[in-house]
UniProtKB/TrEMBL annotation:
Coiled coil: none annotated. Belongs to the acyltransferase 3 family. One of its GO terms (molecular function) is O-acetyltransferase activity. It comes from the Bacteria. GO terms for biological process: enterobacterial common antigen biosynthetic process. PANTHER family: O-ACETYLTRANSFERASE WECH. Pfam families: Acyl_transf_3. Residues 8-328 form the Acyltransferase domain. Its main location: membrane. Keywords: Acyltransferase, Cell membrane, Membrane, Transferase, Transmembrane, Transmembrane helix. The chain crosses the membrane at residues 12-36, 48-69, 84-105, 131-148, 160-178, 184-204, 216-234, 246-267, 279-298, 310-332. This is Surface polysaccharide O-acyltransferase-like enzyme.
């Protein structure tokens, strides 16, 4: 088997996306806690930032598709279950334990049998901290990966494009029309947009769909302007209820923006820097534990980032959260058992 060369564009994209997710979750937490005491302009700007960061998770999924759906990458069912699915299950259980322990400590509760039961309830019911939804998504993707690989291995480029078109129309365009009151009765038996991102990442990276840099840049600019305009319009005309059109991963605008960013970054010939490769290895762990620091800063230290120089304060606090998360992951990677999945 030919050893796959490092893809530095993915290292950069994963790292940038990880930092974007930290900012997204920080802003979301800040709005949730302090949104009622800030001005309408501050609230609007914060909401715009949130909506403009939704590309981060889709780009993660597209990278997964580009790498794992590669026809030349051999993945047995045994390897998928033991290496990929088991790793996420272990990470999920670890997070459920850590977050329950954290909640018990900050709320000054006692450790008892219910604490142990709560861990397993959180694990199976998905009732732990909200950002862990992504782990359940990954498990679902990995479980279906053998089927997805059959599709990419046997389908022609034309059929892949056809699949993407069907996904786009039924999982993005039609739901958007429903939101604005136009009912369409047709549907397909797929409830999630994430397979679309998975296959699109594969199609873009492997040249089935080709976008020139100026096209990718145009898609980014156009979708960004649309998101900004519609966010402002939605706040001033809330009766239209455009929330699902904007704050949703199946949004046409989020899809266009995500594809543009992925395509643009992937088209750049990045220099082979070892530091970005080392940083990339830490991004999964940062995603797992960064909410510990966000919650501590915003909720338990009661720091309102909107009070003084919000742009500076939020930027500095997000950098602090990112650095603290990186350092924590570096330490955790030295711990036996934990280092196998973080």
């Amino acid at each position: 088997m030919v050893k796959q060369e490092p893809i530095y564009s993915f290292y950069y994209l994963r790292t940038i996306s990880c930092l974007g997710i930290v900012l997204l979750h920080f802003m979301s937490g800040a709005i949730g806690l302090y949104g009622s005491v800030i001005s309408q302009n501050e609230l609007l700007i914060s909401q715009i930032i949130l909506n403009l960061l939704l590309w981060c998770v889709p780009c993660f999924v597209m990278i997964t598709g580009a790498l794992l759906l590669d026809k030349n990458k051999q993945l047995s069912l045994d390897k998928i279950l033991k290496r990929y699915v088991l790793r996420i299950l272990e990470a999920l259980l670890f997070c459920c334990i850590i977050f329950v322990v954290y909640d018990v400590i900050v709320h000054k509760e006692s450790f008892d049998l219910y604490t142990v039961i709560q861990v397993f309830l959180d694990f199976f019911q998905g009732s732990s901290w909200s950002h862990l939804w992504y782990l359940y998504l990954l498990i679902g993707i990995y479980l279906l990966l053998p089927i997805y690989k059959v599709v990419t291995k046997g389908a022609s480029d034309k059929l892949i494009k056809y699949l993407l078109l069907i996904y786009f129309v039924f999982l993005s365009v039609i739901p958007m029309l429903e939101t604005i009151g136009i009912h369409i009765a047709f549907y397909i038996m797929v409830s999630s947009v994430y397979p679309f991102y998975l296959f699109f990442g594969y199609a873009l990276h492997h040249g089935i769909i080709s976008l020139k840099r100026y096209q990718s840049f145009f898609m980014i600019v156009l979708s960004t302007l649309c998101i900004i305009f519609l966010t402002i319009f939605n706040q001033e005309n809330s009766h239209y209820n455009l929330g699902n059109v904007l704050s949703n991963y199946s949004s046409v605008f989020v899809i266009v923006q995500s594809i543009g960013i992925f395509s643009l970054v992937d088209s750049i010939k990045w220099k082979n820097r070892e530091w970005i490769k080392k940083l990339d290895v830490l991004t999964f762990g940062v995603y797992l534990i960064h909410m510990l620091f966000i919650r501590s800063i915003l909720k338990y230290l009661s720091i309102n980032p909107f009070l003084n120089l919000p742009v500076v304060t939020i930027s500095l606090l997000v950098i602090v959260v990112f650095i603290l998360s990186l350092l924590t992951v570096v330490i955790l990677k030295k711990v036996p058992i934990i280092n196998k999945f973080i």
